[in-house]
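Data deposition worksheet. Section B asks for the primary sequence of the deposited chain exactly as it was used as input, without tags or linkers unless they were present during the calculation. Section C holds the resulting structure in token form. Section D is free text for depositor observations; keep each observation to a single sentence. Incomplete worksheets are returned to the depositor.
Section A, Depositor: J.P.
Section B:
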Amino acid sequence: MTYQITTHVLDLVQGTPAKHIPAVLEKLDNPDSWKTIGNGTTNDDGRIDNILNDNEQVSSGTYRLTFDVSSYFEPDSFYSTIPITFNITDTNRNYHVPLLLSRFGYSTYRGS
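Section C:
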């Protein structure tokens, strides 16, 4: 079975999914270097169903999921990007990393 990393972005002010936000998934390759292993853009439901590139698999390590929110909040975006760094130790499960978003704040949690 192939496991996935997914995300869902919700706009807390509008109460709607945050559409068309680009995101990049990276894995810490060594202490000073990140390797891009996936990218995507949120769909009309604010989701990216599997952000891993086709040739990548979930493996143990440190990951960073970075959302480019500057275009979503044009013209007055306080944040340009929002990086979420997380660790994976159990490679036998899916990982869901949601982002709750507003113009001046955000939060995230380990989803299911």
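Section D:
The chain has one domain: 5-108.
Residues 19 and 46 are 5 Å apart (CA to CA).
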